[in-house]
């Protein structure tokens, strides 16, 4: 049985067992959840060394700053365009299906607004004044910046830079191997992660707001189908079926953990091994995307804003919806790849168009269920981005891609 099949079985069994524990979620939380946390912590352990080491090697193999700049430009363009598409799909879906009409309002709860940091500060924060501190705190943008710089620096000094690059290469390989070993536990990990979520978010929580959940998931599917699989098909030789199948181990981990940064090591392995993307592109696009490219979160913010407006009977003008588009784009950039981060940013979107923040209280109860879907979209979107950018740079080696029926190393084969 392939790993993907096993993970899917773990996921489905987890949902079933979770439903059995709905009346007593405490048991699931006490006895099953720790195994999920164990699995997630194992993956997280590899993130910082993996991102750092593979990006140093990647930057060194790209070599010149001009090419690095070009790849960076393409990546940002893809991120920006797909995020705009995502919000438009979310807004259109919410306007058509009107999930908030006839919703009885829940009791208001006080919520705090997260202030968006200023653009200048955001740019300044990318430069780590102390790289070790950046690594200790897992600050992804700062790690990316430092890794790129040392990688380029090492190529410039030639011979003397070689030991450093060799060390980083070896470290990255070790982390990849560890990720693979941990992935053998994925079916159990996914099971243990999903049981407590379903047990504590049973039908009682879901049913009253089933419409908004459905609208979000419809928009998630449409975006994945229309934007990701189509763009992958246009630029690479990978068909939509192969794309979704190949990405599925990462999608399943994203769905069960609600953390795109926790899924990062798995995505890094998959794009190289399953889709044949070069290490230099994978190590650049994926960590960056995990930090700033969150289409699922953007869709969710668009749908929820319209939903809350409808629930309160506040009409939203086209101008206000454009404001939502802009703030949700910024909000999704600022969202961290951890569970529930998008919910905090939702407050910012709501306040940008003067919607009542208490409206978020309606969403709070179902947020985890929405988080699972949006994280899956976030992760899938970054996999698509790395394939598209690699394809335009001629950096996909189809011979090495297990999804194309070739490739030597098949441990993560779909
Ligand atoms: N949990 C999401 C992620 O990790 C972020 C969010 O809450 O929207 O991608």
From TrEMBL:
InterPro entries hit by this protein: Na-dicarboxylate_symporter, Na-dicarboxylate_symporter_CS
Membrane topology: Multi-pass membrane protein
Membrane-spanning parts: 46-65, 77-97, 140-157, 178-199, 205-228, 298-318
Classification via Pfam families: SDF (PF00375)
Localisation: Cell membrane
Superkingdom, natural source: Bacteria
Keyword annotations: Cell membrane, Membrane, Transmembrane, Transmembrane helix
PANTHER family assigned: PROTON/GLUTAMATE-ASPARTATE SYMPORTER (PTHR42865), PROTON_GLUTAMATE-ASPARTATE SYMPORTER (PTHR42865:SF7)
Protein name (Swiss-Prot/TrEMBL): Dicarboxylate/amino acid:cation symporter
Provenance organism: Clostridium mobile
């Amino acid at each position: 049985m392939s790993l993907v099949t096993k993970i899917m079985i773990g996921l489905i069994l987890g949902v079933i067992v979770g439903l059995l524990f709905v009346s007593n979620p405490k048991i699931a939380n006490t006895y099953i959840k720790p195994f999920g946390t164990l699995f997630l912590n194992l993956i997280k352990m590899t993130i910082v060394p993996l991102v750092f080491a593979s990006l140093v090697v990647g930057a060194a193999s790209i070599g010149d700053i001009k090419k690095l700049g070009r790849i960076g430009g393409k990546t940002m363009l893809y991120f920006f365009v797909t995020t705009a598409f995502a919000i438009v799909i979310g807004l259109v879906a919410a306007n058509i299906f009107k999930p908030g009409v006839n919703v009885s309002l829940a009791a208001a709860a006080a919520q705090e607004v997260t202030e968006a940091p200023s653009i200048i500060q955001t740019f300044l924060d990318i430069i780590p004044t102390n790289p070790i501190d950046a690594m200790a705190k897992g600050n992804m943008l700062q790690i990316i910046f430092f890794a790129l710089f040392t990688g380029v620096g090492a190529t410039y000094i030639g011979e003397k830079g070689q030991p450093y690059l060799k060390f980083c290469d070896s470290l990255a390989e070790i982390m990849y191997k560890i990720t693979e070993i941990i992935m053998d536990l994925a079916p159990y990990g996914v099971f243990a992660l999903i049981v407590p979520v379903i047990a504590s978010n049973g039908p009682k929580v879901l049913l009253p707001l089933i419409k908004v959940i459905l609208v979000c998931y419809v928009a998630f599917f449409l975006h994945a189908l229309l934007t990701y699989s189509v763009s992958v098909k246009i630029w690479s030789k990978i068909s939509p079926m192969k794309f979704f199948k190949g990405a599925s181990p990462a999608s399943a981990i994203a769905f069960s953990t609600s953390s795109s940064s926790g899924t990062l090591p798995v995505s890094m392995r998959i794009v190289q091994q399953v889709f044949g993307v070069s290490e230099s592109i994978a190590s650049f696009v994926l960590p960056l995307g995990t930090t700033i490219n969150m289409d699922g979160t953007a869709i969710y913010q668009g749908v929820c804003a319209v939903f809350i407006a409808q629930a309160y009977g506040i009409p939203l003008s086209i101008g206000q919806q454009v404001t939502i588009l802009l703030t949700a784009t910024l909000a999704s950039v600022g969202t961290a790849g951890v569970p529930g981060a998008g919910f905090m940013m939702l407050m910012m979107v709501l306040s940008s168009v003067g919607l009542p923040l208490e409206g978020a209280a309606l969403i709070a109860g179902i947020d985890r269920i929405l988080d699972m879907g949006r994280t899956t979209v976030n992760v899938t979107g970054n996999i698509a981005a790395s394939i598209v950018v690699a394809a335009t740079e001629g950096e996909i080696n189809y011979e090495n891609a297990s999804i194309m029926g070739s490739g030597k190393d098949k441990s993560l084969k779909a």
